[in-house]
User: Fold this.
Amino acid sequence: MQPAYRIYAATFPVAVALGLTLTGVTPGFAADIDCEGTTPIYRIQGKGHISPYVDQEVETCGVVTAVAFNGYYLQDPQGDGDDATSDALFVFQRGDLPAVGTLLRLRDRVSEFIPGGASTGNLSITQLSFPQVLAQAPGAPLPPAVVIGAGGRVPPNEIVISPAETDPSINLQQVADAAVNPFNPETDGIDFYESLEGMRVTVEDAVAVSAVRQFASFSAEVVVLANQGADVAPATARTSRGGINLQPDPDNRGDQNPERIQIQFDATLYGGSEFPAIKVGDRLGDVTGVVGYSFGNFEVNALTPVRVEPSDIEPERVHRRGRKRLSLVSYNTLNLSAVDADTPQRDKIARQVVDNLDSPDILALQEIQDNNGDINDCPSGDSAACAGVLDASLTLQRLVDAIAAACGPRYEFFTVDPLQETTQSAADGPDVFGGVPLGNIRNAFLYNPRRVSLLSYVGLDRNELERRGVSVPLAFDYSRDPLAARFSFRGQELVVINNHFSSRFGSSPIFGALQPFVQAGEAQRQAQAQAMHEVARNLLAADDEANVVVLGDLNTFEFTDDLARILPGSAEERILRNLVGKNRDDNSYSFIFEGNSQVLDHIFVSNNLYRKARFNFVHVNVDFPRLFGDTVASDHEPVRALLKFDDGDEHASMANDD
Assistant:
């Protein structure tokens, strides 16, 4: 049975106005709300991902701990002392909302709400919706916050959900699957955070492993570790810049770092006047909030202002002393177009090219949009008016001009547009290359004609791949066709193949209902890796001394089968090598996703180039805040290789040369 709670009313008239039955009270003394016979919140939550009371009507009692724009968080004042059961839940309601500290007795039917709908793969939230308020009283003390960290509950640091529980696969949106699924909050991250759903918590001595990112005027988020990452696994997972590396597994089914905790800044809940500008490695002290779930992640909705103790990281710069090495950069430019609104982004990329990348000889770019970006100016049914609508020459020309204005070299450029005949009516291109609707992203090159000469280039569409004898010529359908170019540098020829493999967009959440989580585009990326392997193999079969480079945003990790086995070839037939392994420090990442530092951008070279090659991740973007008003060049880092073709300058200082 739920006990009666004694709540101290502010004054007798307030209690009377609320319609409470007061037993023997005088102003300023306790008022009784009878919770006898109600179902405690911790029983409603139960030990699992779906309430044992779902679709049943209950009466319950709780204290309002936080009020959002669409409802409030309600927590049992005492709890049951069982770490496996949450003592709180969310109450969905519009209009007049109770104040924090209000004790409520409610009646309602328990529901499981899936944010965004079942198709998202999200977990459900146990909640009440527009309940009947049976009694209320103000002034209740808030339950103490559960400490996440060494002073309380330490999150699991290796397993999101035990592999034994996901063979066969399960769907935790389904009552039957959730009922039989073992609930292990001590070992499984997904269960640990579920056991805190809706509760007041304090993340102890937090450190940021992502930069803050703002998604709307009322919402921003950052990912942290408790206790400055003292309990990460493995102990070497942290980068020296402050992040945490995604852990290797051939199928990306390994350690996803469940110790990561997302801090959400919801303007209706957050106590600060503005969102803090947080970069990777910043210390935030203790962060108190309530545990929610949205967009595939558990999150701690911060309630009090966050104190930021900044780290000392800065954007990196690379330099080279000698000029006998070819400088080659791969860079995803985040949907760059020629429109005026992209001018700040364009100028920032240009300054990075000159100041941070030391004006590379060749720039292989991804996500170059057509000239008008994501604007639709292709009239319905008017094919003549659509001619040239997929052209990106102005996008590239304006970038070239911006680099020259930043005191860089005068680059030349080339690309291959999507096929015009695939343009659909009433659309500015069919987006057959994927990406932002109407943007028609593609791969492109800039090169410094004073350093290198362009000999030829070709788009590797299905016809070209078939002509070259590739076994999977359709690998890049509905993705970006690779762009292959042949350059001459100091008397040596070099083939560079610029790629943007199929996106991971559409994957189900790591902390989602579908387990194991679905990784979108896996089959396509494997086929694309196979196609690039065969293209490189044919080039090397024709000339075993050919200098071949395969690079770009490959949308998967250096340890997956796609890049560890298929693209380079098996150990017996290794024709390409990934330069990522040549990075000389522990900051090997080009992207941060939900707090996991990871490598999506790669440069593979043929064996004859590998030994003398040098490689850098150049950290200029992903470690730094993305708040409204900030100019963002990209959500990827550029990656750079220095390639040596002769014996000159063999002993140049590595510190000075790159």
The CA atoms of residues 48 and 183 lie 6 Å apart. Residues 146-302 form a domain with the OB fold (Dihydrolipoamide Acetyltransferase, E2P) fold (CATH 2.40.50).
